[in-house]
Amino acid sequence: MSFSVEAFAGGEVQFNTDILDVNDRTNIDLSQFSRSGFILPGTYPMSVQINNQLLPEQRVSFYPPEDDPRGSAACVSPELIAQLGLKQDSEKELTWWKGGECLDLNSLAGMEVEGDLSTSTLYLSVPQAYLQYSAINWDPPSRWDEGVSGVMLDYNLTAQTIHQGNDASRNEVSGNGTVGANVGPWRLRADWQGRVEGREQSHQKMEWSRFYAYRALPAIQSRLMLGENYLYSDLFDSFRFTGAALNSDDSQLPPNLRGYAPEVVGVAKTNAKVIISQQGRVLYEALVAAGPFRIQDLNDAVTGSLDVRIEEQDGSVTTFKVESASIPYLTRPGTVRYKVAAGRPSDLHEGGQGNTFGTGEFSWGISNGWSLYGGGIIDNHYNALSMGVGRDLLAFGAVSFDATRARATLQDKNYSGASYRLSYSKTFEEYDSQVTFAGYRFSEKNFLSMSEYLDASRFGGPIGGSKSLYTATFNKQFRDAGLSVYLNYSNQSYWDRPDSERWNLSMARYFSAGNIKNMSLSMNLFRNQERDQRSGVQNNTTGMYLSVSLPLGRSGTLTTSVNRTQNQNRYTGRFSDRLDARNSYQLTASDSSVSGYFSHTGAQADLDISASMQEDDYTSLGISARGGGTLTAHGGALHRTSSMGGTRLLVDTAGVPDVPVRGYGVSTRSNTFGKAVISDVSSYYRTAASIDLENLPSNVEATQSVTQLTLTEGAIGYRNLDVISGHKAMAVLRLPDGEYPPFGATVKNQKLQDTGIVNEDGSVYLSGIKPGETMNVSWGGQQRCTLTLPTQLPADGLATALNLPCHKTVPDDLSAPESLMGQGAKMEKQAS
To answer: Can 261-325 and 727-816 be said to share one CATH topology?
Structure first.
């Protein structure tokens, strides 16, 4: 079949029906194709795309323009304009028509608007000069989505059973997580942690570590938090308190202006559990395989001293501290960043302690390169004031220097002292090197930080007065040699107790030997020196880890290693492989032990399983599960997660189950109710979710396969992806008078999804066929008849065409908008 068209002034297209290969040329309706870009007046659900960026679906109206009664133009409403992110001076120039409901496009020179019903999309082209600053995958605040109201429960559980020699088995279950609820822009959260140990006597401990609420304040690029919190400061050390905090939120800035998060590196002798905490609150817990580990996914809001605990399966425990510090405090010219907080210090286990305090700090970008910052903290018996300056040295990096003076009264005795800090950061791109952070801090003997003052008030005297702290993190790539080097160093000295020191040096080199490609040689050197304050016992841990790896098969790797710790050598052979995209395993054997480690990335949870056996010593089995559940008024689903209480997206596949959904590096499928949750979505980043069209079930079609949005912190986003589910078959439609619906008529299901277009003699290829369901047939701009699918489908599996009567729903004498195809046929008749 073929036909020709002619275009006339005004955008109309006239069809030459004489060349249509149909028997009845008078029974034709091509009104939706007869005018280029023409959309009948009305209101349509449409996605909005601005300069190739997709906005959420919304209802868009089309009206006849005042100068073209037969035409149709999209109405760009004030609500839609608010999402575009126009500059303020551009908004002042806007003019409107239809009583202020629709934008006059002439008020923004160069702006173009076009609707496309075939893709249900309204395309807007807006010159960049009118728009606020934007970046790749980042939108201005006018496009941020607060999400929908709902509840969540995220968990991280670890269970272990260990049997040592003739001793009774030791069973343990531990975990942590977050319970939360979202109401509008408010995020309500409660963090929990617990541990159950079973030996001869059972020990149970379950506690709520934090109750708090927060919300974003986009107008001032800040976050307000109420409840139990930790002081996150660039000037003062961290401590726990109950109260309120208002902070400039760097995560609301474009990505290139945001800060960084600390990382934790170490070496596990066996399959081990790593617990990272701060002042008793568990921040991170996971099983790791034997060998070096590197944890880089801590929240970027974490600052201060972190406690790291490595629990080996042979019962041994290693602990150390990681000092987390901010990069030099620089602020963009002409802007001010701030943090204020007030409340009462509190202990995780004993509640409130100390007096009500208040604190505030700021950083002011004086010019292009100089920043001035400072702040203070005060309560009835303690006060501290800090001032500093930061300088961008351009090719030489960035540096900052600040001084803090503190006064405290303890047991009628006054303490006064100062502390000085120097920080430096630099990326040497020409040398493939980076000084992530280097800092030095010196404190006078009578200087007490706020946390030291709180400890002294509680225990009755100055405790652990810090003297000096050196920290440095360095990365270097030797690309020609295939070598990378990582160094982390910290040294903490005290006025009233021995020093502590920790450093870790990692080196890795990739090379080839003959036909074997991509071999690697890696070495870790580490030292942890710390003396127990009460017993005075010096704890020194110095070791080396050396390994050689070579690829085997398509994805396997064989690694041989030697681990020397505390004058003991441990030789190990390890084979690891990936079974598929979701499953991997590792088998390890040493001189006297064997172990296995299996990891599964699931749609509803991540699972890690480990088992070990040491000759004449112990056997152990461990399992770890991380996941969560999210429930809203639109439905809910179980899902995997690693960021407790974090941002997530609920995708609705129109109630169709088993639809593959992808987004933010996650692949999952909709559950029985047609819902799927994509977790660990980055806040304030543009996030896309899509249907995996290549893996759709055979009876499912996706009419809308992609959606995008930008969510605020902690939000539960919600989006529909239009999916049609059901059988597909040819059908013949017939009206009650024996005639057929016109050529070009459209068939829609009860969800108003297009399921077919009528061809000659009422034939149509229908999709989404479900027994007993009704569908509507429309032409001339209105719904004309309704068909009902049989309650029992043919036994031949729809191999033959269905004969479906279509009952009229609109009388013939009702005046519907005259189709343009009808106008074309009338013109041809008059011409003949």
So the answer is: yes
Amino acid at 341: A
585 close to 597: Cβ distance less than 8 angstroms: yes
- 316 φ/ψ angles, rounded to the nearest 5 degrees: -75, 155
For 420, the token pair is 């000085």
3-state secondary structure 313-349: CCCCEEEEEEEECCCCCCCCCCCEEEEEEEEEEEECC
For 165, counting Cβ atoms within 10 Å of its Cβ (0-12 exposed, 13-18 middle, 19+ buried), the class is exposed
b/e per residue, 450-476, with b = 16+ CB within 10 A?
Answer: bbbbbbbbeeeebbbbbbbbbbbbbbb
Query: At 524, which helix (H) or strand (E)?
Result: strand 516-531
Tokens (6 digits) for 831: 């011409």
Contacts of residue 753, Cβ cutoff 8 Å, sequence gap at least 6 = 703, 722, 724, 768
Homologous superfamily (CATH) of 727-816 is PapC, C-terminal domain (2.60.40.2070)
Say how far apart CA 359 and CA 189 lie, in whole Å. Answer: 24
Determine the pLDDT at residue 146.
94
Burial 334-364 (b: 16+ CB within 10 A, else e): eeebbbbbebebbebeeeebbeebebbbbbb
Cα–Cα distance measured from residue 688 to residue 675, given in angstroms and rounded to the nearest whole number:
16
The tokens for 821 are 């195809």
For the chain, domain boundaries: 4-145, 261-325, 727-816
Question: Are 286 and 275 in contact, with CB atoms under 8 Å apart?
Answer: no
Taking the CA atoms of residue 136, residue 141, residue 147 and residue 149 in that order, the dihedral angle to the nearest 10 degrees is: 150
662: helix, strand or coil = strand
Three-class secondary structure of residue 129 per DSSP: helix
Q: Please say whether the beta carbons of 482 and 499 come within 8 A.
A: no
b/e map 489-518, b = 16+ CB within 10 Å: bbbbbbbebeebbbbbbbbbeeeeeeeeee
Structure tokens at 520: 């690697």
pTM for this entry: 0.75
**Which SS3 state, helix, strand or coil, does residue 816 take?**
coil
Number of helices and strands (H, E) in the chain? Answer: 4, 58
Residues 6+ apart with CB under 8 A from 181: 149, 150, 151, 152, 188
Residues 308, 317 contacting (CB under 8 angstroms): no
> Which tokens hold the place of 414?
């006054």
For the domain with range 4-145, which CATH number is right: 3.30.200.20, 2.40.100.10, 1.10.10.10, 3.10.20.410? Answer: 3.10.20.410
Count other Cβ atoms within 10 Å, centred on residue 436: 18
Beta-sheet strands, E only, within 653-751:
660-663, 666-669, 675-678, 686-691, 700-702, 706-711, 716-720, 723-725, 727-734, 746-748
CA distance 651 to 669: 10
Task: Classify strands 675-678 and 96-97 as parallel, antiparallel or unpaired.
Answer: unpaired
What are the per-10-residue average pLDDT scores of the chain (832 residues)?
40 53 56 60 82 79 80 86 83 86 86 82 84 75 91 95 80 93 96 83 80 94 93 88 92 66 74 83 81 70 74 82 63 84 84 82 85 93 94 78 92 89 76 71 90 81 76 82 86 84 88 80 85 62 88 87 84 91 91 90 91 86 94 95 92 91 86 93 88 86 84 94 86 90 88 86 88 88 87 71 85 43 36 34
Which residues make Cβ contacts (< 8 Å) with residue 344, sequence separation at least 6?
Answer: 241, 242, 243, 352, 353, 354, 355, 356, 357
Q: Which among 493, 510, 408, 522 is positioned nearest to 454, based on CA atoms?
A: 408
Residue 22 confidence (pLDDT): 54
At the top level of CATH, the class of 261-325 is: mainly beta
Residues with Cβ within 8 Å of residue 779, at least 6 apart in sequence = 29, 31, 741, 742, 744, 745, 746, 819
User: What is the rounded distance in angstroms from the CA atom of residue 823 to the CA atom of residue 28?
Assistant: 11
